[in-house]
Amino acid sequence: MTSTVPNAVQHTDATEPITMFGPDFPYAYDDFLAHPAGIGQIPATEHGTEVAVIGGGLSGIVAAYELMKMGLKPVVYEADRIGGRLRTVGFEGCDPQLTAEMGAMRFPPSSTALQHYIDLVGLETKPFPNPLSPATPSTVVDLKGESHYARTIDDLPQVYRDVMDAWNRCLEEGADFSDMNRAMRERDVPRIREIWSKLVQKLDNQTFYGFLCDSEAFKSFRHREIFGQVGFGTGGWDTDFPNSILEILRVVYTEADDHHRGIVGGSQQLPLRLWDREPQKIVHWPLGTSLSSLHDGEPRPAVTRLNRTAGNRITVTDATGDIRTYPAAIFTGQSWLLLSKIDCDDALFPIDHWTAMERTHYMESSKLFVPVDRPFWLDKDESTGREAMSMTLTDRMTRGTYLLDDGPDRPAVICLSYTWCDDSLKWLPLSPNERMDVMLKSLGEIYPDVDIRKHIIGNPVTVSWENEPWFMGAFKANLPGHYRYQRRLFTHFMQDRLPADRRGLFLAGDDISWTAGWAEGAVQTALNAVWGVMTRFGGATDATNPGPGDVFDDIAPVELPED
Fold first, then answer.
1. Distance in angstroms (rounded) separating the CA atoms of residues 116 and 33
2. Distance between CA 9 and CA 181 in Å, rounded?
3. Distance in angstroms (rounded) separating the CA atoms of residues 374 and 411
4. What is the pLDDT of residues 368-402, one digit of tens each?
5. Over the stretch 105-155, which tens digit does the pLDDT of each residue have?
6. For helices 158-175 and 221-230, what crossing angle results, to 10°?
7. Which of 85, 379, 472, 558 could cross-link with 388 by S-S, CB 3.0 to 4.6 Å?
8. CB atoms < 10 A from the CB of 523, how many?
9. What pTM did the predictor assign?
10. Which alpha helices (DSSP H) does 346-431 contain, by range?
11. Residue 507 pairs with which residues in a beta bridge?
12. Exposure string (b/e) for 262-279, b if CB count within 10 Å is 16 or more?
């Protein structure tokens, strides 16, 4: 993909992606999953033991699936629907194949642990139409009332290329981009750790915006403003300006914002197919066993209380009042739920971990989709040769508009607006139709000759993740100074470091990972938690395929001083 502001290094082999395994914890999860020895086993005496898995999003379903294969009996609790923020919805009264991705909708090939499961369940992917990507016929950048049509970055005015160059220089000068890119591409763990250790110590207290301002390349406010509104890869990043620059560097180092692909038929198929999948290699359970069959088709309902009981066991109360006690449990929901929606004992975690959860910073995010009769935006203006409408980046209320189709003669979908943070909060008080009206007005000012409304064939669907009661936000984004908190949460699966009376409950989910907002982080932390549960039951990995906990001391995230 040619990003709006490309990476600093133009790679000679664009077909080989970076594996999203670092830089904080440079462990090859994809190799771990692919190894013929499997990811571990438990003693036969523990076969059939129940383990609570709280949350039926991707992290919870991956964890439950792998625990089942080991011979344990995962008991999945889910408050809403299987999938979490892999949420694919249809449009009432429309072709059921016409869908909208309310959460995760684009995935980089660097997410190789995620890709393992996509391949496992037989899903197909296709290029996602990001700004200026090869999958996007054209892009319109509309700032301050002035629109520019482009097929590539070279079609935009010179100032946009100046901004691209400024970002490239900023990354090189302030973040050793080329060196890190090379080290990650070669999986040179010592070099990754050497570069990243210095950067964490240097930049933990720095915002994204401050990082730009410290660069001579971005001394122009105009350049910083354009960069914030247009950004790179997926669009404007000014909503991330207050966040830690370390969060942004993780994205660019791992190429998480590049070469995106969407899942054909919708991302929610992944957890749903894993739920129904009958693995061929399974211990204890008979062939034909699935997560669905172990649950009689439906997960347990929402968890309302978590507490410790005698024997350092985890007791779970659900919305029906049912109380069950487990020797181990994995919590995969957003950590704020433990502070509000779920009644929790203080004894569940050490106080430092509670503090880390309380300090977690979530970003807001909103989307609105409408179904249309056909991809009318591909109609060409005979006088200009341009498409009637393009993928659109703007400083107007809509911010990002995406055009999604399955062919010229089929109904299609427009994501009229995808926004984050303050831009998302602007939509919160409005009903779906009110949101749509404002969006159509904004787009009408960019495309005065296009009547989008006449093509709409159904009601809009929308989401504001900050208003979803079982999410309370879209995804974690660390603020400056939050590295220590994130390290506590990510390393929680190494429970031999915890007091004996604080073990047995494991955290997972993308907000526990170093790459929040990316499904890869959900998968990686699920595998960490599975390793932790396996170890708790006296199990182990094969000597030829060490797990994330086995190599932890060699590649543990940088530890910053507390004093």
1. 7
2. 8
3. 4
4. 999 999 999 999 988 899 999 999 999 999 999 99
5. 999 989 999 999 999 999 999 999 999 999 999 999 999 999 999 999 999
6. 90
7. 379
8. 29
9. 0.95
10. 351-359, 421-425
11. 331
12. bbeebbbbbbbbbbebeb
